[in-house]
Each structure stands twice: as structure tokens, then as C-alpha cells.
Amino acid sequence: MAVNETVVLVGCGRLGSSILEGWLLTGTVAAENLIILSPSEKPAAEAARAKGARINPPLEALTEAHVIVLAVKPAKWREVVTPLLPFLGDQAVILSVMAGVTAPTLAEGIGGWPIVRVMPTTGVSRGRGVASVWSADADARALGRALFEPMAETVDLNEEALMDAATAVAGSGAAYFYAFTEALARAGEAAGLDAATADVLARATLRSAADAMGDDPLEVLIDRIASPGGSTRAGLDALSRDGRLTAMTHDTVAAAVRRNREMG
Predict the structure, then answer these.
(1) d(C-alpha 56, C-alpha 42), whole Å
(2) What is the dihedral of CA 201, 203, 208, 213, to 10 degrees?
(3) Is 27 helix (H, G, I), strand (E, B) or coil?
(4) Which of 68, 148, 185, 237 is the most buried (most CB within 10 A)?
(5) 102 and 264 in contact (C-beta within 8 Å)?
(6) Which SS3 state, helix, strand or coil, does residue 120 take?
(7) pLDDT in single tens digits along all 264 residues of the chain
């Protein structure tokens, strides 16, 4: 579903650029409906400009905006947003993709506009991201879904407090998988493989596992590979001995949740 109203993207760093690329790739937002505010030149913004997007126009242009997407660093949002507020119309919705900054905090600094929080992954740039959506306003929530569903597996959260957990699992989760893949490659090297071969095998295995996952329960997927008494089961038993895999993963997610809250 395309969003045909004017969309303002505030910030075009790594995540903002990924969102912009995903919108244009999937046709979710047409370039001519985009206003991009960025203090420096960004390749994604320049590519959008070539297709008709407006980059840093006079702020009076914001009066027509239907949604303002805040993709700036959490520590910088107040100083970035304050100069924009006098130009926003009553129809505007504030959509934040900033980790840790709660809706009450946003409302305190912004005012009475509807707020929707979305936590997407950078995979949206390829139309294959993940996004968690929360809003107390039904229309704002629907708008958030419309902007991200075409390029992300999208879930609704019932409570804003769950956003930190969703961010720790999905927003940060890819890095955890990459870290495990790196550790797997080094373990293969320790077992006798050369470094290049171990890297190829570990990376290819991650891709293959993702492609084969589908919607089956994770336990079924594990059992499909790890037959009783086999080498895979022996490895899994070592990985899970004394509950260390569960404990390590819980600690990892909890640490990310704490940091999200600290940043807010």
C-alpha cells in the first residue's frame, strides 16, 4: 500500500537512509512526496533527489506534511525538532524510529501531535526488514504499519514498554547472529579448517538456515537437523550444557534493554 501524502524524513544516517531506500525500492512512498532534512549530503538522499524528492527545502514546506519521521540520534532529537514545530500542521503525525525515547518524552518536547513509534532494522533497505510498531492512537498506528509493512515483517506491540525488548531482539539481533557466525567460523578454524574456508562455511550456513526456516516452529527445525545420538545433537548438548546458552542469551537481551532505556 502506497502512502500518497507528503512524508518528511528527518535524519538520513544509516537507519534513515535504509528506510528511504526501502520506500523507494518498494514504492511505499514516491520520491515526489518526500521531503528529506539532513545536515550533510548522503548518497541515499541524493539518489532520492534525482527522482524528485526535496532536500532541505524552506521549512514552510513542512505545513503540508502528513507524517514526520524522526530518524536522528536519540541524544540530538530535541535540538533538531524544536525549530520544525512552528511549521507543522494539525494533520501531522510524529513517527519516531529512535531507540529508547518514549512517547511521553516525545510528547513533552513536541506537543499534542499523534505519536507512533516504530523500530525497524536496516534490512528494510532491501525490502526484507523487521519492524515493531506501537501507538496509543489507532490512526497513527495504521500509518506506521502502512509505511513499513511493504518492506518489513511487521508486528504490533500492545504496550510501549515492550518496545525496548523488541529492539533488543530484532533491532540488535542481527549483530548477535553475526557474532555467533564469527565464533562458529573461528571454532571451525580451531578444528583444522583454514580461516577462509571456515568463514565461507559459517556465512553460507547462516544464509541457508535463514532461507530454510519458513514458519515451522523452531523446535521442529532443530529436531529436523539434530537427530538423536548424532553429531549435531552432541554439539547442541555442549552449547546448552548447564543452561548456559539460555543464560547467555537472556543476559545479552537484558543488557540491550537496559541500554535502550538509558539512552531514552
Answers:
(1) 12
(2) 130
(3) coil
(4) 148
(5) yes
(6) strand
(7) 567 899 999 999 999 999 999 999 999 999 999 999 999 999 999 999 999 999 999 999 999 999 999 999 998 999 999 999 999 999 999 999 998 899 999 999 998 899 999 999 999 999 999 999 999 999 999 999 999 999 999 999 999 999 999 989 998 898 999 999 999 999 999 999 999 999 999 999 999 999 898 889 999 999 999 999 999 999 999 999 989 999 999 999 999 999 888 876
Give yes or no for a contact between 21 and 10, defined as CB atoms under 8 angstroms apart: no
Look at the chain and count its residues: 264
Strand-strand pairing, 129-134 and 115-120? antiparallel
pTM beyond 0.85, yes or no: yes
SS3 sequence of 38-82: CCCCCHHHHHHHHCCCEECCCHHHHHHEEEEEECCCHHHHHHHHH
User: 186 near 199, Cβ under 8 Å?
Assistant: no
Per-residue cell: 193: 579448517
Q: Which residues are within 8 A (CB) of 186 and not within 5 positions of it... i.e. 6 or more apart?
A: 198
